[in-house]
Amino acid sequence: MTNGFPSGFTWGAATASYQVEGAVASDGRGPSIWDTFAHTPGRIADGTNGDVADDHYHRFAEDIRLLADLGLNAYRFSIAWPRIVPTGSGAVNPAGLDFYRRLAETCLENGVTPYATLYHWDLPQPLEDAGGWLVRDTAERFRDYAAVTHDALSDVIKHWMTLNEPWCSAFLGYGSGEHAPGRTVGTEALKAVHHLLLGHGLALDAIRSDGAAYGIALNPAPIHAASDSPADRDAARRIDGLRNRLFLEPLLTGRYPADVLEDTGTTAWFAEREADLPLIGAPLDFVGVNYYCPTTVAAPDGLISAPGTSSQPGSENVVAVDTGLPETQMGWPIQASGLRDILVTINKLAPELPLYVTENGSAYPDVVTADGTVEDDERLDYLRRHVAVCKDLVSEGFPLKGYFAWSLLDNFEWAWGHSRRFGIVYVDYATQERIVKKSARWLRDFLA
């Protein structure tokens, strides 16, 4: 036991390819939707991009040794589809496969277990040009890419996740347009939901083999009604449906929630694709949960979003409510008990299924002090509170198997660029110097 956790519990930190790797034109990598999006004026808050990011492509060995020195025993990273299949389909790039082999082998040499995510949002641009996740062909091309990658790396990687946060890919990418590819197609974004989940199922069917574990990383969140009024409760039902049930139910129960399809006027479209549900709902070895905060919502107050520009299609006019909780720099309320709530919700759907916290963290405006340290006490407190929730669940016999802090490194934080820092390790983007923050030192001492 380590501070109340069993000896086999997984402790890790996570990153994502476009956020940390840089080297976007190196060794045959093709362009992704995030390369295009980040170079489009006005899309990124501070005007930066991921061309260099943390230069993890060249510094991964240093970063993995740093992770191991913190006492962590697992590294969750994502594989960039454009490095493996630069145009999204067709010719495979051996240099891309070689990079991830070296990365995984470096993990193993340092006593770190590699956990690979096959898709963390960097869709090859040619596939987006052909329709992106709004068309079925992209799911089939994802299967092909997953099979090639798994065949090449399955001897060194034994833990696989197909997708990261398909809610973001579908509803921020095709609903609100806040994320790449920046499209705003209203309820048509539910087609992206289905094709992402179909891609997951097709990939799982193509790569599953004995001796490895296969899952998916979702970002569910507790959704609360602002009051007990019928209108507010219905608003919560709608958002819970879009955020949680639209993904959890097909994956874990083999069906889509009928009320969500009715809310969005997509019942007939989904009915024509019921034959895909056995693939989507095939058994998983685990589910990863990326948890940051709960959401409280209320019925419309008359302020209705323009059609087609919302991350909650069909419920654009449901409003988020400030409950007065302390918030991170992202404006996200801090409530560690919400982690318990969402893990318990998933456990009720699939009682025996192992769960991991695959992301958990917070952004604050960190600064380097005169003595060269980063004293991020707020992040330390955030992590400590959420780790305590995990400890309680494990002590109760809950099937929670691991915890990954987000993120190992400060990085390119999507539409926020470099203006938001989530890392437990500070990165000076001008010099690429790494500085272990106080939160990471706490975690190291906790695990020692």
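Next protein, fold it too.
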Amino acid sequence: MEVFYSTSFSVPMVQLSLLLLLSTLALLFSRIKLALLINYCFTLYWGYILNMDVIQDAGQGITDTFTYMYFGFGLIILMLALVGFIVQRD
């Protein structure tokens, strides 16, 4: 648990602004599911890809099989949501 208290997490301001802009536009056009998907993608990116060096520096205690499975399931959910948007019937 100490890893979570001592780890610094940084998000570039440009990406945070882009998230705010894209989410606001999606919500203004009543695309709630798209706004949720945008937020999910940014969270997945920030948590695993952008801060990969922080995760690897924390040691083997944080990068175990569960971490990779969680990220893999996150990608599967993302792909299923994208397929759902493509085949959606209005």
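About the second fold: The longest helix spans residues 65-86.
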